[in-house]
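re: ur question from yesterday

yeah so i grabbed the chain u mentioned. its 352 aa long if i counted rite. heres the sequnce exactly as i have it in my notes:
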Amino acid sequence: MADFKIFIGFVMCLLLTAGCATFSDLDPGTVLPIQGERYSAVVDRESVELQLGDDAVEPETEYLIGANDILYVNVKGHPELSSPGIMVGGTNKVSGSRVDGLGRVHLPLAGSVSVKGMTIGEATDHIQEVFRTYLKDPWVVVEISEYRSKPLYLLGQFNAPGTYYMDRAYGLIEGLALGNGLKDIANLRSARIIRNGKTIPVDIYRLLQEGDQSQNTWLTANDVIFVPDDKNQNVFVFGAVDKAGPIVMPNGRLTLAQALSSAELNEGSARPTHVRIIRSLSPTRGELLVMDLTKIMQGEALPFPLMEGDVIYVPRNGLGSWNLAIQEILPSLQAISSLLQPFVQVKVLTRD
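ran it thru and got these structure tokens back, copy pasting raw so excuse formatting
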């Protein structure tokens, strides 16, 4: 038994010595990269980063009066010419006159006076000048009773979703704070700002979780901040498949081969060596991938895990470019635009 233990010890020493000898010419701390590319089905990878660009807005230095604001106009010494009381929200009565859709406020004696786009000071001077036609040295004071011209819509997983009205220039953080926090199921990585009907490239996750102030963009009237939940996770398959559209990711896991199997890949017309994937890493960053599915099917590459929101396009016979691929799937993406990740919405649906 003792001889056997000595033999085992001798063999272990030989193995350790042999292992060390293999790297004896390397300096301590040397890191050798694992050569894993040959096990990957990725043929081409292009990183894309989106900038706010023309979607950025400058903050107003002073509040500018707009439609639906309620102005209280007080003409000193002439209470009969001051603004009457009106109902707001059906139950709340305030003193003031509502600015109509043309930007005019309707006042006793003076009639309709245009105040759209004016500051409070400018509106005061203008209304006072109008009353000079009827009064000697009128003294006019103008105040905003209700701010109603710059709505901000908070939708989705806010603790207090709804419509809020901005009374000054608001940054994104201030706008988010109006919603009284977010629910536990909020999916910040998919949160987005919709402006003038299109998603703009702003990363709310980076702003709140990483403190990236470059994402604290200024808000403007009628902006929509939408924060979805994290319950439903899908990828989307188009092209040479019999069942195009969204594919559910069970427990958030799905491989490329599994997705194409669920979508029923049409092997007779598919070009499996150039499968294309539009991947969203954040609302401002993504990747355009070209995959060789045959490497996976033949065991030459590892299974390729998909990420939530991946858009997969299987070209038909003939090699197509990215432009041709996007052109073919664009109508389908437009039909399900509300389900897409912000990066895909911006990159494909709203940009050239």
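noticed a couple things. The longest helix spans residues 2-22. also The first strand starts at residue 42 and ends at 49.
anyway ttyl
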